[in-house]
Amino acid sequence: MKIINTNNADFKQEFENILARAKTDIKEVSSIVTSIIDEIVEDGNEALKNHIEKFDKWEVKSDEELQISKDDMKKAYENIDEKLKEALHIAYDRIKTYHEKQLPKSWIDFEKNGTILGQKVTPVDRAGLYIPGGKAAYPSSLLMNAIPAIVAGVEEIVVCTPTPNNEVNELLLAACHICGIEKAFKVGGASAVAAMAYGTETIPKVDVITGPGNIFVATAKKLVFGEVHIDMIAGPSEIGILADSTAKPKYLAIDLLSQAEHDEMASSIMITVDEEVAKQTSIEVENYLQTLSREEIARKSIEDRGAIIVASSMDEAIELMNEIAPEHLEVMTANSFELLPKIKHAGAIFLGENTPEPIGDYIAGPNHTLPTGSTAKFYSPLNVENFLKKSSIINFSKQAIDEVGEACALLADTEGLTAHAKSVRVRLEDK
Fold first, then answer.
1. 296 belongs to the catalytic site
2. Mean per-residue pLDDT for 225-234?
3. What is the spatial distance between Cα 19 and Cα 350, in angstroms, rounded to a whole number?
4. Tens-digit pLDDT profile for residues 124-141
5. In this structure, what are the phi and psi dihedrals at residue 288, rounded to the nearest 5 degrees?
6. ∠85-87-91 over CA atoms, to 5°?
7. pLDDT per residue as tens digits for the range 329-367
8. Does the pLDDT value for residue 175 go beyond 60?
9. Is 113 helix (H, G, I), strand (E, B) or coil?
10. Rounded distance, CA 281 to CA 275, Å?
11. 345 catalytic, yes or no?
12. DSSP code per residue over 9-63
C-alpha cells in the first residue's frame, strides 16, 4: 500500500488525486438512464419486463412474477439458521432503539397577543427502498432503510431489489419478513428507481426513495429528484482512519480492507503521525490481502484508491481528514474522544480500537447508509427525518394582526404585490 508524506514536494497533487476519488462521470450514463426512465413512464410493466430480461437475464411471464410473495419471506425466515435469526433480531432491535431517539416532535407556541405558531411533523405516505443485489446481497441494507421508515410511521413501504437469474437472496427475504414488508419487487437498477418514482401497473408511486446502488441507480435518483424526495446520491464505499503511535497495525490494516473488499472503486485512506505505524500497516495489508475471499477486488481498490499519509502533526492529520470528509472515519488514537470536537466532516465516526467500521455496518444501531465522496460536508446519514415532513402552523388573533399587520403590508408594497398588501389591510380596516 503506497505511503505518502505531507513533506513530499508533490504531496499537494497526490492529495488532490485522493480528493477526486469519488468523481464518477454521471454525464456518461445520463442518456442511458434517461432512456430507461422514459421507457418506464411510457410503457410501465412492459418496459420493466424488457429491462429485467436484458439486465437480469430472466423472462417475466406475468405481472404477478414481479412481486415477491410474503409466503416466500416467511419461509426464508423459518429456514435460516437459528443463530443467524438471532443476529438479525439483535440488529433490528438495536437499530430501532437508536432511530427512535431521532424522532422530532410536533410543537405549538402561544404568544401573549394570541398568536399561535407551531410545527406539525407527519410521515410520508409511501416510501421506496432500493436494496442492492447482483455481486452481493445486503439484508443489512434492508434493515437500515426499512427501520427508520417504520419508526417514522410510514404507512406503506415498497422494496425493489435486483434478482439476477430470478434468484432472491434468502437472508434478504428473511429480513423483509422481520420488518413486516408487504410489497417487494424483483426489479433493480435505474428501472426500479423510475418505477418507484412514477409508478407502474404493479409498483406504486412513492414519495421518497432511499438506498444505495451503482452509478445507474445514483444517476436515476438524481434525475427523478423533485418528482420524489431522495436520501442522497451515494458513491463507492470508503473509510478514513486517523492513527497515532498507539494504534495496532493489524487492526488498521484489516479495517482498511473491510471497505476495499466492497468493490474496486472503494477508497481506503489512513492518516497517521507515526511513520513506523504507516510502514507496518502497509505490510499487514499485504499479509491480509492474501487471505481474503475477495482478494482481487480488494487488491485493485487498495492499489488504485488506497493510501497511507504520514502527517507532521495530529492537527494536520485532522485538517486533511476533514477535507476528505470520509463516509466512515475511525479514530485509533490514545485520546479519541479528545479529538472529536475537531472532527467536522464524516458520515459516521468510530472511536477507539474496539470499534471497527463493520460494527456500524451491522449491529451498533446508527444507520450505515452514509454520505460518500466528501458529501459528508453537507449530507447526513439516512435517518428518521428522511421519511418525515414538517408543516408550519400559523394562527393570528385580531390583536396580533393589528400589531404587526401594517409592517407586513408595507413589505408587500415594496415588492409591488398590491393584493398581498390589501389582503392584510382589509382586516386592519375592519374594526
1. no
2. 95
3. 21
4. 999 999 999 865 668 999
5. -70, -40
6. 120
7. 999 999 999 999 999 999 999 999 999 999 999 999 999
8. yes
9. coil
10. 10
11. no
12. TTHHHHHHHHHTTT---HHHHHHHHHHHHHHHHHHTHHHHHHHHHHHT-----SG
For CA atoms 26, 28, 30, 33, the dihedral sign is: negative
pTM strictly above 0.90: yes
Q: 394 CB contacts (<8 Å, ≥6 apart)?
A: 116, 117
Confidence at residue 191, expressed as pLDDT on a 0 to 100 scale: 97
Q: How far apart are CA 284 and CA 249, in angstroms?
A: 7
Contact call for residues 72 and 161 (beta carbons, < 8 A): no
As given in the structure block, the three cell numbers for residue 79 are 429456514
CA dist 97 and 100 (Å) reads 5
Handedness of CA 319, 214, 252, 303 (dihedral sign): negative
C-alpha cell at 52: 429485467
What grid cell was written down for 403? 400589531
10 Å Cβ neighbour count for 5?
A: 14
Strand partners, 225: 228
Question: Both ends of the chain: CA-CA distance in Å?
Answer: 80
* Residue 64, C-alpha cell as written in the block: 404477478
Distance of CA 423 to the CA centre of its chain: 44
Please compute Rg for the chain using Cα positions: 25
Q: How far apart are CA 273 and CA 55, in angstroms?
A: 47
Which residue in 39, 261, 284, 327 is the catalytic one?
A: 327
Q: Contact at 8 Å (CB) between 67 and 60?
A: no
> One of 51, 328, 345, 368 is an active-site residue; which one?
328
For residues 191 and 36, the answer to whether their CB atoms sit within 8 Å is yes
Cell of 207: 414519495
CB 428 within 8 A of CB 408: no
Cα separations in angstroms, 334 against 309, 314, 341: 19, 12, 15
Report how far apart, in Å, the C-alpha atoms of 262 and of each of 282, 297, 349 are: 19, 8, 19
- Give the pLDDT confidence score for residue 336 in this predicted structure: 97
